[in-house]
Amino acid sequence: MWLLGGTRPEALKLAPLATALDRQGLVQGAIVATGQHPSLFHRGLSTFGLRPHRELHPHRKSGTQSELVAQLADHLDRELEADPPAAVVVQGDTSSALVGAMAAFWRRIPVVHLEAGLRSHDLAAPFPEEANRRMIGQIAALHLAPTPAAAMNLRAEGIEADRIEVIGNTVVDAVLALAGRTECFAEPALAAVEQAVTYGRRLLLVTVHRRESWGEPLRTVMHAVREVLDAHPDTVAALPTHPNPSVRADVLSVLGHDNRVVVTEPLDYPDLVRLLELSTLVLSDSGGIQEEAPTFGVPVLVLRERTERREAIEAGCALLVGTDRHRIVAAANRLLTAEQLPRAHRGSRNPFGDGKSADRAAIAIARMVGLPVMPMASFEPDAGLGVDEPISHIHPVINRC
After folding, report:
1. What is the pLDDT of residues 200-245, one digit of tens each?
2. Burial of 343 (C-beta count, 10 Å sphere; 0-12/13-18/19+)
3. What are the catalytic residues?
4. Residue 217, preceding bond cis, omega within 30 degrees?
5. Which domains does the chain have, with CATH numbers?
6. pTM of the entire structure?
7. For the CA atoms of 385, 304, 120, 67, what is the dihedral angle to 10 degrees?
8. What would the pLDDT profile of 72-105 be if each residue is shown by its tens digit?
């Protein structure tokens, strides 16, 4: 069976499944790298001691989506014809996932969709990911939904219930595997951030990478960050930037001379997880951060107008603020002026997973290919969780995450 991916998020979410398949010994999984973002995919896997079993090497010149899709379709079709696997697992909503699903479907090879059922219900946001995951949903044989809400989306689209398993999100498995490590940061500049937190400063982690945030929205966010820092002298900020030169230039134009801000290149995943552990508040347009931060009880201000991860909003772990400067500053100030920011016991209130998602996925796949295994209980976000009183003076939506 293939585990197909080409981006860092895919590596991080496929790695726990690869490990679970190997540990259980029921189905043999081979990691296949599509070459979409080769260095980032390899670095993501290496965090967990993994590497691809086979690699594709598309020859990209223009960098367009059409070029990537055309080349991957041809490469994958030839590989699937020569050595067809029992199934192909794709994760999420990338171009690699979409083309991998289509190529397998054309060869009548079952498609397993990991992180199935996420919907913003807006084809323009996120673009083109919303369309990608909807199309994968129409051809997948097994839908591994992270939450009951995602499963409900799939059933509303006519997917039969017996093809859907609610397993949680494997990124929570990945986060918990790295949480609590004490190794030095791979990024040397972050040592100053850790020292500042040690001496009582509060940390804002800021990540803005989506294309729809580039340009004026990004500059607006940077001005909001500076305003928040000015209002709270005991805060510092860490800001990993997108590798695009114009994005980095916009960040530096506003915050580049502020000694309270550490701007870095994109971080290796262990560094990002460790920053999350140190953070007081996160400002991000990332989907993954919305899933990861609740593990550490860190509230997230989501720099988007819509999110397909409504569970974080409904659980009180996140708040949608978009890229409006006044909304960002007002929400951050409410949180940072509270007597005590809400922080839950590690892993106790994450609405996206409990650290057992990869095991559930491996067993569901084994059952799909006909092995006589007993299913695991579905992931239930509220199982075993206490009910905390909302902190209404912070914001009626922000709860004890």
Report:
1. 999 999 998 877 777 788 899 999 999 999 999 999 999 998 777 7
2. middle
3. 93, 115, 129, 209, 211, 242
4. no
5. 2-177+354-368 (3.40.50.2000), 187-266+279-336 (3.40.50.2000)
6. 0.89
7. -130
8. 999 999 999 999 999 999 999 999 999 999 999 9
